[in-house]
Amino acid sequence: MNAELLAKYQPVIGLEVHAQLTTASKAYAPDSTEYGALPNQNLSPITLGYPGTLPRLNERVVEMALTLGLALDCEITRYNEFARKNYFYPDLPKGYQITQDKTPICTKGHLDIRLPGADGAAATTKRIHITRIHMEEDAGKSTHLAGETETLVDLNRAGVPLLEIVSEPDLRSAEEAYAYLTEVRKIVRYLGVCDGNMEEGSLRCDVNISVMPVGATQYGQRVEVKNLNSFRNVQRAIEFEVERQISLVEAGEAVAGETRGFDAVTGTTAGQRSKETMNDYRYFPEPDLPPVVISDAQLEAARAALPALPSALYRRFSQDFGLSEYDAQVLTEDKDTALFFNELTQQTTNYKAAANWTMGAVKAYLNERALEMAAFPLAPATLAALIGLIDAGTVSHSAAAKQIFPHLLANPHEAPADAATNLGLVQTSDAGALQGFVDAALAAYPDKVAAYRSGKVNLLGLFVGEVMKRAGGSADPKAVNALVRQALA
Length: 489
What we know:
Blueprint: H1 3-6, E1 9-20, H2 45-48, H3 59-71, E2 75-76, E3 79-80, E4 83-86, E5 96-99, E6 106-115, E7 124-137, E8 141-144, E9 151-154, E10 161-167, H4 174-191, E11 203-213, E12 223-228, H5 231-250, E13 258-263, E14 268-274, E15 284-285, E16 292-293, H6 296-304, H7 310-320, H8 325-331, H9 335-344, H10 351-369, H11 380-391, H12 397-410, H13 416-422, H14 431-443, H15 446-453, H16 460-471, H17 477-488
Parallel strand pairs: 12-13
Antiparallel strand pairs: 1-10, 1-11, 2-6, 3-16, 4-5, 4-15, 6-7, 7-10, 8-9, 11-12, 13-14
């Protein structure tokens, strides 16, 4: 579709994100939530809905809901009731899902996303409003075999606790949706309430999409695309659906209100069923669970336990430390990296060097070994001490990166100053100790010396490099530079 036609319409997008919580047991039963167990192993009569069984709420679900709600600046519902959402599907063993209907635990929150500026301009911030966050349980997993009539049902996931995060229709492009989903995943990981792994299904997304002419105030007919399992597929599904809906409107046809599925192979969506209404689910209060009342003490405890959030760390890194937007963004993508860097800055004031080491050598070491930051062997204090040796001119950056840093990785309890001494890499600026290296370097290139004195001053680097090589990394480059200039003069 050409850009001119696309520009005539405004996409309107809202996301429903289902975050699977990192509890050890299910929402209303003691079954394990372990991922990767053999099919239909993590089950009990409660999860299967046997007659006479009663659910019991997992308190950690409430605690995690409060944590996420406070982090997203939500209003907290003090009196929470549960409801049954009734529908029949093979992977829903009870025939209903325990969820929240009229009393979602969190409402009226927001999440700020950063959008890259055009043509190198500074990034802009957009606020996306959160309609509600509610607690519910997951269904099982159905696997439809290609070319077969059978469907395999694994109920291990049935009853696993979820938080559903429903945004307002504030998003206006696939890129904004991608940025929003990125921030949601980042914040649930920072809080430790969800691992954010879309490939394993612990973070899933439904997308609501409509289009309207630019300048219009009434939204078009909404279509929902269900169960998208990657950031890229969310973006692709939106892009396809926007073009499909615009084509229908341009042809004078109505957009059907329906649920559609996304085919990752073809990059297209296909109708699955007409859009359900609330009445189709026959919501009614859950008779087997008492209401949950959030006390002042419980709310304050959750507020006090909130960790440093990525938005606050981003502001600290960019504003207080003077780092670029890019550096601050990279350093806050992962909680452990952000906390490592934050601790590093408590022990060095060379924030740019600290950022470069964290994003460069540290990340390279971890990536080569497929490790997380928690497995990095050096303490922030050790890396800060190494940065201090470079800043003081005690060792060169090259020696630190190529020799001392690898040595410390193998000997993490050794002090960087001791390592530099033991490796013979402590730089000297003593003219007496360096003069012999300078004389030898110049004597080796008499023709180059003559050329330099005749005006080819760009040869200075050759002589400095020769001195450094002969000194074996133990010479201070500034002192060498001054001595070579003096000798050549």
